[in-house]
Amino acid sequence: MGPNQRILPAIPDWPSIKPRQPYRPQRYPLAHAQRKKNAECMVENQAIGLSRGGRTTKIHALVNGLGNPLGFRLTGGQVHDSQVASELLEGFDISQSNIIADKAYGTAKLRQYIEDKAGVYTIPPKENTKDKWTCDYHVYCERHLIENFFNQLKNFRRIATRYDKLARVYLATVYIASICILLK
Question: Which position has the higher pLDDT, 28 or 170?
């Protein structure tokens, strides 16, 4: 006999009070397949993808002629570089600009996009391309500016090893790190 059952009958004014059961909400566990599906949706929305090195995030950056960052996009590790390039260039006036990029960005769609915006591209063709175009390799040597920027960005430990779960928090960290690079 519990303490409530001994005390309550001793109180004559409250004969209808009964001890209550603790509140237990009805929760049914998710099936394993449903949990996995929900987890994949969360990972997809957070710019984390499987590539050869495991789960990774790609940072796509646009820098000016001095190596200063202009914009960023995050994608999962499995997303090809050329899929994000036109989206990254959209917010900027690229007329009369020379867009220097590596071979991964040498798709016909991106080159046509740059030409439509009255820009010039300096992107070398890949080895397996059938219709090769000319590339000014003296101008292409200036691509080291973006490589230098990424080298400085990876000096920040929080960028090099992603600790943030949410893509927006990680992107904010990238912006803060780039501000620190600009202030040096």
Answer: 170
- C-alpha dihedral sign at 160, 166, 171, 173: negative
Q: What is the residue extent of each domain of the chain?
A: 38-183
Query: 110-128, pLDDT tens digit by residue?
Result: 999 999 999 999 999 988 8
**In whole angstroms, what is the distance from residue 106 CA to residue 72 CA?**
19
Return the sign of the alpha-carbon dihedral for residues 74, 77, 78, 81: positive
Closest CA to 180 of 148, 156, 145: 156
The hierarchical CATH code for the domain 38-183 is: 3.30.420
The model carries a pTM of 0.72
Edge-to-edge order in the sheet of strand 69-76: 49-51, 54-63, 69-76
